[in-house]
Amino acid sequence: MKKKTAILASAGIIFVSANLFLALKDDSKAVRSSYINKWTAVGKDNLTETLHAAGVVIPEDEHQVYYNDDDGEFKGFLVKEGDKVDNGTPLYEYSSNNIDEDLAKLEAEKSQLVTESNLIDDQIKQLTYLQSVSASTSSTSTPVFGDGSSSRNDSNDLMNVSIEKEIYDKQREKGRVEAEIEKYEDLIDSYEGSDELGKNSEVSGTVKQVNYELKNPIVTIISDKPKVEGTFSERDLKKVEEGMKVYVQSDLLKGKVAGTLTKIADYPETDPSVKKESYYPFEITLNEETEEKIIKGSHVEVSVITDQVKNAATIPEKAIEKGKKNSYIYVLNETGEVEKRKISKGLQLGGKTELKKGAKPGELVVQKPENVQEENNPFFSKLNIDSLKKKTFRDESKRTIFKHIMVGFFK
Amino acid sequence: MNNRIEVLRGLFNYNYYTYKLRDSEHVPGVWKNTALLILLSGLIFGISAYFGIGSEYLSKKLTSISREEYEMQKLLFMAGQTVLGLVFGAVMIFLPSLFFWTLSDVELKKFLAVQLFVLPIFLLEKLIEIPFALSLGLTQVSSPFALGTIGQYITDNNFIIYFLSSISIFKGWAIFIEYKYLKMLTGKNPKIVMLLVIGLYLIFWLFSALISFVQFEKIL
Predict the structure, then answer these.
(1) Which residue, A86, A130, A319, A336, has fewest beta-carbon neighbours within 10 Å?
(2) Is B96:B178 a contact under the CB 8 Å cutoff?
(3) Which residues cross the membrane (chain B) (predicted)?
(4) Cα B192 from chain centroid (whole Å)
């Protein structure tokens, strides 16, 4: 009896092994259904390959204001740190030493001219007097010469003419001097009341620093416009180039702020060394509309968009079976079979892979290729209770439901 | 516990149990065990269907209907299979019993008791096929215990394949048990008993092959 059992058991084992061999060998004729529980539709996505880096928000420009002792005596600051300034806002005031000197010089020159003008007045007066005297003598007592008549008259006329010319010249000189005086008065007037001079801001922004010890630069103004600065590692460097679109993110910001990578330094920030990796500074200009939201000094996460594909057919990377030469996916097709398809991959990003060829968006792809028993064979799946909806039952007629149960019964 | 039906003992220790069954006047617990085994049959068919085994015909609908609808159809398939399990259990207990009962003058209860040893073999087969289906994709038609795999190598005729796939080691075991008990119970010529038993199961297999062959989802 035991022998019989042993023979039967051996026969059974051989039978089962033979069956397994026949069913599982390559190109087996036996149908092998795949137990597939997870599949995914080929997606349609915009894939963007990004490179992440750390950055910090800084003002785009820093404007320094210098003060020179020669300009004059410093009077005081008109702004304090943190103040907003516009183009033209006075920053500090000083009184000019030179101007006082200039003024004194002008006053002296003016008074000299006034004296000169008075002198000319006196001379003119004397000349007019001389002229009047000369006229009266010619009428009362005319000197008579030997031949009788005109010689004395002639000399008198000559003198009158020369005096007249003299007066005319003096008047002209006076006019010149007075014009000169007027010019000096204008100059003096122009300095009047402006003995305290102000220095105006040339840019708009915020006062970052005021140096009360009057060490240059005495005022530092930062522009309102922010930019982001950071560094790329050597490895990152080959992926990025100037002009790439950038998104900036931080806890302090709502959403993302767009910008452009404007500058990548050719030379690392510290002296290159064999032992350590080099970091290359970069700059990002942010889009204008976002200026206000961003806080200067905050640390941000920078995502540089290095590659982008729009409306790409995508599948999870895990769904791809990597062969020796090609990659494959398994499509659950409309004939109820698992179809193996060769694909060509595009951009790979965040676990998603762009399908350049192989499947269209909407097609169903097996998520775990290792679950596929054999290509071009049927598949079945476990009941997914979570996907059941009461509504689908209500929408279905009782007859159809009964029909489905009957079909299930006869399987 | 004296004369109670002990299903597993009767199954494995049939030499002892055949005599016991023949000599006992009362066979208590038959109805209870029958009911329990029928329910167990429904449960095992339901579990198998829960994993979707046998629901390949629904797969082609996956691309055309919504996920909710797809799952609903799978649930209805499971319901159908559970009912099938119950019917299968009942048929496998009552039909052979009644068949042999009409051919002999032995109490029906004793035949029912025999079937209580046979049905667990079928249920065990159904249960063992679940891990094979899930891990290796070997569903009923390619079951390693049946002739279906060989059938697929020798013919393309689906009916023959289905028929061969319903002949398995477990079925052989069931026939052997059935034969042993019936031979003892009826005291008939062993050859005739063997012929009757095999004949009965041949009819079952042909019928199940026919059901598998006919694609009811296309008819209904």
Answers:
(1) A86
(2) yes
(3) 34-54, 75-102, 160-181, 193-216
(4) 23
For B27-80, the DSSP string reads -TTHHHHHHHHHHHHHHHHHHHHHTTTT-HHHHTTTTTS-HHHHHHHHHHHHHH
Please list every residue in chain B whose beta carbon sits closer than 8 Å to the beta carbon of residue A404: 72-73, 76-77, 80
Predicted model pTM: 0.65
**Whether the Cβ atoms of residue A369 and residue A39 lie closer than 8 Å to each other:** no
- Say what the ipTM of the complex is: 0.89
Helix (H, G, I), strand (E, B), or coil: what is residue B21? helix
Answer whether B182's CB lies under 8 Å from B18's CB: no
Summarised one tens digit per residue, pLDDT across range A105-141 is 878 888 888 898 889 889 888 888 888 877 776 555 5
Contact A380 B53 (CB under 8 A): yes
Whether A360 has a pLDDT exceeding 70, the answer reads yes
- Which among B81, B135, B146 is the nearest to A408, CB-wise? B81
Chain A CB contacts of B149 below 8 Å: 19, 22-23, 30
**Do residues A130 and A160 make contact, with C-beta atoms less than 8 angstroms apart?**
no
